[in-house]
């Protein structure tokens, strides 16, 4: 289908969902050999939300989606496509996107999941942009939802202090030309895949007594390698997407980075010479919510009135894969 130049793809509405239960650093001190001081100084995280045992990814995704649909002033039946970015689907199949489709009654929508780790929301937006701008679809619902507490080894202090649960959603549709998602830059380096992975539960090592006993259905991470990758890619992915848009770091009004570690964000800000006031941070409250981090942060920044008409929003993420994604949006109120 020919590219339509009379409009751009843009975000029409956002929503998010966070479980109520807070797990503080003090709580973690009672669970593993750690301290509030270590966690805050090494990561910036003070507390995170943890879903109750009965809560599922599709439930959180559905709640976030309902709010985004309401915010966009459309109905579930208007939606043409649902994309859910998650690494913790309810089940291997059917997809979590199909479960959400049924939950919200989006009877006209196609639905699929993407598995891109923490870069999932930005990958989802870039897929949505293609479907909107080539005229295939009018409304695409992009949801990023992760419930990492269910795949966390609560005896591993290297990982259990980092993560939290949450979901964010955005309705992508047509906006006036000159506004909306100006460009994206997504990429992957599969060679680094084993720095952040869950060993069991797939075709390589199906679930068995031994895999459960050895806690192989949990996050395994080489933190230092991911840290090095993250600092580097936050910089390169930002420069690349800004170049594609003909913009410079100083043109950015609000920078919404993946909320993994304040030291990674500080390093990126320093390299890019971005001022602190332009950076949106909520990792102190929620920890790293994987794909949901950027989606929830965008929703919070909007609802807090931190984004005005015409503002340039820069979002950058990195994650399992290894993957990365950056996007620039010119906001249209
Ligand atoms: O979305 C992508 C997901 N992943 C990430 O973004 C992770 C990126 N990596 C990081 O954020 C950091 O590497 C971590 C926060 C995970 C770790 O920080 P670090 O400064 O790289 O610490 P380290 O791994 O070098 O460990 C330093 C020390 C070690 O002790 P020794 O060997 O020096 O005695 C660790 O055993 O800190 C110890 N340590 C802890 N101490 C208290 C590791 N975790 C903890 C903990 N509490 N929770």
Automatic annotation (TrEMBL):
- In what pathway does it function? Lipid metabolism; fatty acid biosynthesis
Identify a single GO molecular function assigned to this protein: beta-ketoacyl-acyl-carrier-protein synthase III activity
Q: Which GO terms describe its biological process?
A: fatty acid biosynthetic process; secondary metabolite biosynthetic process
Query: Which EC class, in a word?
Result: transferase
Give the active-site positions: 118, 258, 288
**Which locations, inside or outside the cell, does it occupy?**
Cytoplasm
EC number annotated for this UniProt entry: 2.3.1.180
Which intervals of the chain are annotated as region ACP-binding? 259-263
Tell me which positions the record assigns to the signal sequence: none
Assembly and interaction partners: Homodimer.
Instruction: Read off the domain note.
Output: The last Arg residue of the ACP-binding site is essential for the weak association between ACP/AcpP and FabH.
Write out the similarity annotation.
Belongs to the thiolase-like superfamily. FabH family.
Q: What is this protein called?
A: Beta-ketoacyl-[acyl-carrier-protein] synthase III
Q: Which organism is it from?
A: Thermoanaerobacterium thermosaccharolyticum (strain ATCC 7956 / DSM 571 / NCIMB 9385 / NCA 3814 / NCTC 13789 / WDCM 00135 / 2032) (Clostridium thermosaccharolyticum)
């Amino acid at each position: 289908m020919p590219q339509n130049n009379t409009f751009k793809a843009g975000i029409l509405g956002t929503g998010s969902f966070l479980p109520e239960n807070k797990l503080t650093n003090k709580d973690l001190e009672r669970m593993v050999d750690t301290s509030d001081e270590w966690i805050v100084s090494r990561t910036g995280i003070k507390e995170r939300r943890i879903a109750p045992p009965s809560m599922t990814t599709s439930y959180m995704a559905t709640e976030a989606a309902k709010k985004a649909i309401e915010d966009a002033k459309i109905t579930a039946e208007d939606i043409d496509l649902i994309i859910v970015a998650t690494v913790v689907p309810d089940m291997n199949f059917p997809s979590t996107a199909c479960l959400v489709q049924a939950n919200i009654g989006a009877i006209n929508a196609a639905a699929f999941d993407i598995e891109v780790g923490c870069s999932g929301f930005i990958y989802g937006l870039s897929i949505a942009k293609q479907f909107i701008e080539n005229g295939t679809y009018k409304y695409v619902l992009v949801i990023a939802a992760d419930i990492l507490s269910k795949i966390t080894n609560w005896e591993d202090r290297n990982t259990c202090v980092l993560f939290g649960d949450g979901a964010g959603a955005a309705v992508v549709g047509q906006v006036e030309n000159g506004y909306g998602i100006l460009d994206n830059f997504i990429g992957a380096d599969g060679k680094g895949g084993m720095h952040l992975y869950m060993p069991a539960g797939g075709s390589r090592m199906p679930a068995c007594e031994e895999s459960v006993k050895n806690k192989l259905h949990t996050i395994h991470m080489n933190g230092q390698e991911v840290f090095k990758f993250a600092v580097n890619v936050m910089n390169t992915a930002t420069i690349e997407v800004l170049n594609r848009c003909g913009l410079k770091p100083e043109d950015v009004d609000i920078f919404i980075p993946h909320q993994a570690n304040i030291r990674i964000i500080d390093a990126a800000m320093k390299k890019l010479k971005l001022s602190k006031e332009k950076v949106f941070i909520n990792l102190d409250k929620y920890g790293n919510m994987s794909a949901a981090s950027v989606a929830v942060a965008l929703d919070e920044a909007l609802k807090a009135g931190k984004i005005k008409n015409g503002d340039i929003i820069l979002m950058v993420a990195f994650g399992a894969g290894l993957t990365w994604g950056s996007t620039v949006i010119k906001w249209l109120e």
